[in-house]
Amino acid sequence: MRKMDSxxxxxxxxxxxxxxxxxxxxxxxxxxxxxxxxxxxxxxxxLDGLIKVGDPVLIKFxxxxxxxxxxxxxxxxxxxxxxxxxxxxDELWKLRQETVxxxxxxTDLKQVLNFLLPGSEIETQPIVMAPFRLDRVSKAEALAKIxxxxxxxxxxxxxxWYVGFAYNERVTPHVKYHxxxxxxxxxxxxxxxxxxxxxxxxISILPNNKRIEVDLGxxxxxxxxxxxxxxxxxxxxxxxxxxxxxxxxxxYVGKFRAKGLPxxxxxxxxxxxxxxxxxxxGNYFVDEVTTTYDENGINRxxxxxxxxx
Length: 309
Known about the structure:
The chain is mainly β. Helix content is 13%, strand content 52%. Among the domains are: 4-90, Baseplate protein-like domain - beta roll fold (Phage tail proteins - horseshoe like beta roll fold), CATH 2.30.300.10; 97-164, Phage tail protein beta-alpha-beta fold (3-Layer(bab) Sandwich), CATH 3.55.50; 197-248.
């Protein structure tokens, strides 16, 4: 049986295996920041006065001494109870501390990102933004505005920012899971394309702050809302139709569980295999991963996105 090991740095303090009550980490392409919660013993009720908001955080854990980095970021909050609960956020926390004001008569996404993230490695796609204005907002709020306006993904991973269309990174790792070997179906459901009912509300925000709204899809279906910036009605109809196509497919929807190995991250591709239903094997993008480290072991809850080719 494998032995769980962990290593955590919080500011000037180090917590090794056996000195941590629990860890929970959420990594998602649906948000612009990954988060973590750490629970450790509050020694003599003094530790909460020693750890400060803004302290750097590093979380590693694994099996039999083979530790992998699971999270890096900063302390965002401390709940002085027993055990002590420490909330953390990745590089986005630093961007919350900086306020900017800038306007462009004509620009593109790359130029705006270079202004917001100077010196950072950035992967993006060419998107014309026309007039664009930021008025006394934090850099994190600016990224959120871009994400909502253009319906794109914004996240930080392995020293690089990705700001672009979903499931479109230049390099996409693949991971295999087998439902009779290293994964549990739990919350997964297999659906036929014709059984999936979806309605998309597409909203285009114009430079004068007026809006164009278009509804597409099945009126009785689950509703998804998409935001775009300075797109005309014809353009948002095309974009909304493409989104519906992405979300409708024969295959699994929902979440499944796995142990700590193999490592998996959002926006990667999982290959799912099942000896009992071999016709249901397939590849899927991952939308979200929640990882826990506690007395029940290292566990991952993996939420599927669209089917991958």
